[in-house]
Amino acid sequence: MAGTYAGRDAIFDFFRRTQELTDGTYAVEPYWELDDGERHVAYYRARGRRPDGRKLDLDQALVCRLDAAGRWLEVRALPYDQAVFDAFWS
User: What span, in angstroms and rounded, lies between the C-alpha atoms of 15 and 85?
Assistant: First the structure.
């Protein structure tokens, strides 16, 4: 799932793929958000289960750079434990 996704279609395809790979179990539980007009940070718990039994249950931050209208220009997902994240999605 790692990579660069550009444009609305690619981003929606990414979200669809997370649901396909987890049989619809991937979900997030938001904890808090910060926004200063130029950046937005969301901190949340990500959970999911793969058909082969792998499970994901870890904190992540989503860091977004915004344009003047508040639209996302760039988004980076930062998992608390990169090795756990990579093992789940690989």
Answer: 16
Query: What are the boundaries of each domain within the chain?
Result: 8-89
- Sign for the pseudo-dihedral over CA of 70, 60, 51, 7: positive
Q: Give me the tens of pLDDT residue by residue for the chain, a chain 90 residues long.
A: 778 888 888 888 989 999 999 999 999 999 999 999 899 999 999 999 999 999 999 999 999 999 999 888 898 999 999 999 999 999
Q: Which helix (H) or strand (E) holds 51?
A: none
CATH of domain 8-89: 3.10.450.50
Q: How far apart are the C-alpha atoms of 82 and 90, rounded to whole Å?
A: 12
